[in-house]
Amino acid sequence: MKAAPQKIRNQELLPDDLAGVSKFELQWALGAVVLSLLGMMFGWVPLPIVLLVLLGIFVLLFRLAAAKQQFATDSRLMLARYRDEIDRSREDWELVKRETEETIAAFSYMKDGVIVLSSDACVGLINPAARVLLGLDPDRKLVGRPLAEVVRLPRMSLGVQAASSSGKPQDFLLEVQNELVVRPVNVRIDRIAQDSSNSLVVGLRDVTETQLVESMRREFIANVSHELKTPLAAIKGYAETVEDALEEDPDAAVHFMRQIRSQCLRLEKLVADMMQLARAQAGKKHFQFRAVCVADCMQEAVQTNQAVADQKGIKLLIANSDELATAYADFDATVMIVNNLISNAVRYTRSGGTVKVVQRVVGKFIELSVKDNGVGIEPSEQERIFERFYRVAKSRETSDEGTGIGLALVKNLAVAMSGEVSVASKSGEGATFEVLLPMFDESLVADSSEPE
Fold this sequence. Notes:
The chain has four domains: 88 residues; 97 residues, PAS domain (Beta-Lactamase); 71 residues, Signal transduction histidine kinase, dimerisation/phosphotransfer (DHp) domain (Helix Hairpins, Orthogonal Bundle); 165 residues, Histidine kinase-like ATPase, C-terminal domain (Heat Shock Protein 90, 2-Layer Sandwich). It has twelve helices and twelve strands. It has a five-stranded antiparallel beta sheet with strand order 2-1-5-4-3. The longest helix has 63 residues.
């Protein structure tokens, strides 16, 4: 609200010695003096007295009216300022309220647990995640209670005491038992820097997944070491045998040299598969997406495996459905998917069996399926066959053993190209592996060409 200007008619103040007297009052005073002089000149003695009294009364009334108008104007200005202050205060309050609500919401929905402790180690704030990680009752009132009563873990109490006395952060691992589950929780205790009351903040993080990943990493290293150790030991043994048989039995030496070559090829394939798996897990940046004719990929993969299939007496067939189907994928990766699935099917199909490769359009996807009538897969095994180096039951083990990475590579390549893979099988009745890849569309090309 803008201040209204003062509009009191004829009330402009005169400068210097007449400051505080309006022109209106001066004009009336001069007129009264002139009339008084004229009255005295003509003998009208009561007239000047009456005029002066009327002038005084008029000036007093005029001053009262002017003061009232000025007061009203000042009141309006003051009221406008008060309204502006109230509006600003209301806006500030709404801002503070909104920020507080957002902070409380973020605090409540944090995945990590947070506890704020006062200087006497009592709970000031605690979020729901902390209650879950420490196995506390979600409805129990904890604010204001000592942490030692709430969390009866000696390591936690010692950590709080150390952080409070030394001022140094405390970082340690707790194992919290909640019913039948033992959860590893990483605890970090820090003193609040801007708080002179020695308040503490306790951070809690569930490291179950981290420990699982670490366990998988160790298992992977152990599996790789085992896979490399087996052919290396065979190569070493064959090489020693060759040295002894070169002069006494040349034919045996040739046989062992072939075995050495076979083991070297196995090592080479293992390393190549591991490199391809690392490439698939690195994301889409290593792929060249374009329109890919799926029939061409199937044909190339079949030609690669045809010799092995003929050697085992297995019929390798390609269905001609949806020949012109085009996927939005990487050509080499698609060929590798089909090649691994066919190789896997041929390996676990008995002599005289059949391996069939089919493609068809399913909605906005192209489905690639490889079906065999081999030994099949137990239902308990189907969830794990896409893991690296996972070995299936002995019913599927053959002398032509693979590297254990083929199906893991298929899954990672399919996922990297926005697809998925699944398996359907019964023991002794063969298996069907299905891979879905996105159908080629111009919008996919436009989306992929946009900078990230």
